[in-house]
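REQUEST FORM: STRUCTURE PREDICTION
Request ID: SP-0412
Submitted by: Lab K.M.
Chain count: 1
Length (residues): 489
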Amino acid sequence: MANFPQTMSFTGFNTPSRIEADIADLVHEGTIPPELNGAFYRVQPDPQFPPRLGDDIAFNGDGMITRFHIHNGQCDFRQRWAKTDKWKLENEAGKALFGAYRNPLTDDESVKGKIRSTANTNAFIFGGKLWAMKEDSPSLVMDPATMESFGFEKFGGKMTGETFTAHPKIDPKTGNMIAIGYAASGLCTDDVTYMEISPQGELIREIWFKVPYYCMMHDFGVTEDYLVVHIVPSIGSWERLEKGLPHFGFDTTMPVYLGIVPRRDDVKADDIRWFKRDNCFASHVMNAWQEGSKIHFDIPEAKNNMFPFFPDVHGAPFNGMEAMSYLTRWTVDLASNSEDFESVTKLTDTAGEFPRIDDRMTGLPYRYGWMLEMDYKRPVELKGGSAGGLLMNCLCLIDHQTGEEQHWWCGPVSSLQEPCFIPRSPDAPEGDGWIVQICNRLEDHRSDLLLFDALDIEKGPIATINIPVRMRFGLHGNWANADQIGLAA
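STATUS: Completed
RESULT:
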């Protein structure tokens, strides 16, 4: 019997949904731009069965992929499980077999050694495939049109590491997909792979290197010539797992590093520059770019850990105010003989996370960025529907050229999920297009899909698409034009 725990991860807006569905022509208000022809894919953790150990964190749910196919002024809905090895084994057994988040010691004996991926972190389109990603494993690949699951991608055996990122980047000049894999030689190891995949889907580069210490490397940056990795002490160890502690814990006493890895085939350890700074928390990357010998790296930075379910290793209580992050620019100079950062500059007083850009500007100097804003000055009647439990109630646009910001508030009984930029056309100017994102209607236990003019978000949505099922909090998603995914208009 599927009795889920009566805890925050499984009740209220985060009650498991477990719905596969097809719904044509969703009801909407406003005008869906008729020139939009493609699909927005996103993923939510959605447990197929109650947790094996009685409770769990939301990040451990099975991946459920949602596709919003927008064409001819309408939006069609399709939702399917990402059918990983884990999903199939548990589906056959009729119960959970895998235990705690990234702790194989808690699994049923029958699944020891199996790939534990839930494929629940990102839904990404590349090379005509839908990639359902979880960074502790290879990526699951699916058919973007039928949403059938194919299996884990190892590039014909060329990929020798065990893991693949949940935050790939596309080089706007070459069209290559750039990825990392941390804990590449096994759980809790300090080995990382840097990979590039051609637009045809061939693994054309795999470079191994070591990092200063094992940690969660959830995101990274790229520039034209460099891979940029930040090492922040959300740390883990086999000792923690053996004690039954959460896989990751935050250590406020450890330094933070920024690694600059040349993007070429013959990279050796001595070619990698490591810069060092004081402790902070940082996860998602807005963008990175190079200016002469300098590397700029824009990232939301918090004074302390943002994840209450990955607690302080020294036992300090979670500090909500210190968990608030602010977009910050880290700058290092490769011409310097020092390991110190050249500068750390706070770019805004707006607290925010889940940063996004016009992805055509990846690795290049850029002007516009969007974020989910956490504005506690606004009235709040209901909370929920956000990763980590943080209040995410505004969409924010930052113009790095002028310093101006725009803000749109979703109201006191709603919250927002990650925004995604859609260019008006392949050669449209930066920022010319739309923002798409989900809004959680917490009072009604349902969701809307919102479309904004990307550079005029303050006027509010130009279209509100009503989703007749509730979207659990999602992590990441991406847009693809119809010609990339085999969908006709």
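NOTES: The longest helix spans residues 85-93.
Reviewed by: T.R.
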